[in-house]
Each structure stands twice: as structure tokens, then as C-alpha cells.
Amino acid sequence: MPIHPTAVVDSAAEIHPSASIGAHAIVSGNVEIGPDCELLPSSVVMGHTTLAAGCRIHSFATVGDSPQDFKYGGAVSFCRIGEGTAIREGATVHRGTAPGSATVVGDRCMLMTNSHVGHDCQLGDGVILVSGALLGGHVQVGANAIVSGNAAVHQHVRIGELALVGILARITQDVPPFCITDQDGTVVAENRVGMKRAGFTIDERHELKAAFAAIYRQGIGRNEAVRYLEATVKTEAGHRLLSFYAHDSARSSRVRLFDPQQAA
User: Fold this and answer.
1) What are phi and psi for residue 99, nearest 5 degrees?
2) pLDDT given for residue 263 in this prediction
């Protein structure tokens, strides 16, 4: 395997022969590095971290460091990075807090420069964190969601699949799937472009558009939104939206009426 002579590699690490490790990179602890992974110069992978095949860790990124959590007492916890995920310059991913817990990043994710994934976060496949995006501990991000640049997400928040969190947003409550937020975390539109690119059917797109209009244009509350969705949705995507709303959460969505004049 191509390991630069200035790299520091722990004897406890398991590294696939096809992986490469660049100059001044550090591999510390019980790290597992899969096929065709690449650690660029000055990157750091530590702790009980697993990199699946084809991961690329860029310079000055740190993956698997201990959590920023006063409850952490040094127990063994984990960090798992999915296939084909890229972690760009200066990004950080911390492992879990409780014994045996894990921070998980799915397949084909992109964590751009200086983004942060806090302890115990769970990211689905295809998630994009744009430069400077910050996820607090225990945040869940659904598949193919995008968290825009310098957005900050409160701990325990859920962000649904294919959601688009606005640039510089302050997210303190759950963001439903298939929606776009403004800087205050208010849902301002359904993610029409994202759904079309993802191959959603016309029926699914029309159903989700109607749900958005009923919930955010008319301003019905969360419980009423659940009842509305139970009575109306027929598509698979609609049922996934219902499941998100019906799930009890520490940061449950507060349905705020969208005011186009205020947005303007």
C-alpha cells in the first residue's frame, strides 16, 4: 500500500492494501481503512473509526476524535463513514458519547470545507454539508438532504430526506422532508427541483405540493397536519412525510405560517 514515509500509522490500524496515505497524515487507534480509500496530506483519522471503500479524507480534516460532550468519560465509541464519502479540508466528524454508540455518515456524502458533524449524528446516503455547516450532537439528516453554507443545526434536530436548509440558517426544530427553509428555519417551499431530479413521480410531486399548501399556507398545527396527511396521502413519498410528522421528537416541528410578504 502507498504510505508516505512521513505518515504516522498506528500498529493497531487495519488498512486495505489498495488504500493510500499521504504525507504527514495520522492514523491513530483501532482504525479500519477500506479499499481504495485515500488520506490526503495532513489528514487525521483516529479512534474506533471505519472508512468504507472509496472514502477520501482531505487535508486537515479530522475524523473520529472524541466528542465535545462533558458526559463523555473515555468509553469506547465509534465513527463509521460510508462508501464513496468525501470529507473536505478542515471538516470534523466526532465519534459517539455513550459506550458502544456511533456517529454514522452514509454512502456518497460530501462534507465540505470546515463543516462539523457532532457526536452521535446519523447522516443518510447522499447528504451534502456545504462549507461551514455545523451539526450539533444527535442530529439526524435524511438521505440526499442539503445543509447550506454556515447553517447551524441544534442538537437532537431531525432534518428530513431531500430537505434543503437555507444558507446561514438557524435550525432549532425539525425540518420536514422535501422542503426548503429560510434563515430562521421556516419552511418556505417544497423542494420541487430536488424531487424532480430524484425521479419522484408526478403524483408524488402533486401530493407533496398540496400538503405543503395545506400545512404552511393555511397554517394548520402539527397535530392537524398529521390528521390531514393521514386522510389524504396515497403515494409512498406522502407516507414518508406523514411518518416524519407523526414521530415524536425532542425538537418536533413547529408549523409556522409562511408569509410571502415577510419573506420578500
Assistant:
1) -55, 130
2) 47
Q: Supply the pLDDT for residue 217.
A: 81
Mean pLDDT over all residues of the chain? Answer: 94
Q: Around Cβ 127, how many Cβ atoms within 10 Å?
A: 28
CA-CA distance, 46 to 31, in Å (whole number)? 6
pTM > 0.90:
yes
Burial class for 30, CB neighbours closer than 10 Å (0-12, 13-18, 19+): middle
Residue 100 CB-density burial (10 A; 0-12 exposed, 13-18 middle, 19+ buried): exposed
Active-site residue list: 119-120, 137
pLDDT for position 255: 55
How far from the centroid of its chain's Cα atoms is residue 163's Cα?
11
**C-alpha–C-alpha distance, residues 123 and 109, integer Å:** 8
- How many Cα atoms within 13 Å fall on the side-chain side of residue 80? 15
